Amino acid sequence: MKAIHLVIHGKVQGVFFRKHTFEKANELRLKGIVRNLPDGSVEVFAQGDDDRIRELIEWCYKGSPSSKVETVEVSDCKPGAFNDFRITA
Q: Which of these, 28, 31, 34, 59, is most buried using a 10 Å CB contact count?
C-alpha cells in the first residue's frame, strides 16, 4: 500500500474539484480525504494500490472540467486510519 499527500494549486476552488476528486478516488477504491486550504489550493491525502495512486496523481494534473491546475506538489506520507474517501472542510 502506498500513501501520498498532494497539494494542487491553480483555479481549483469553486470549480467542483473536490467533488470530482472524491468521485475519482472512489472509482479507484482509494481511501483518504480531499479538502480546500485557506490559500486557495486543494489538499489530498490518499492511500491504496500503487497503480491506482499513480492514476489519481495523473488525474489531479488535469482536474475537474472547470479547473485550471497550475502545479501539483506530490510527497509520500505514512498511511492514515482512513476507512473510506471523504470530502472535508
A: 34
Residue 2 φ then ψ, to 5°? -115, 145
Q: Which residues are catalytic?
A: 18, 36
pTM for the model: 0.95
CB of 7 within 8 A of CB of 41? Answer: yes
How do residues 77-87 score in pLDDT, each as one tens digit? Answer: 999 899 999 99
Q: What is the CATH number of domain 2-77?
A: 3.30.70.100
Residue-wise pLDDT for 9-29, tens only, equals: 999 999 999 999 999 999 999
3-state helix, strand, coil in the chain (%, to 5): 25, 40, 35
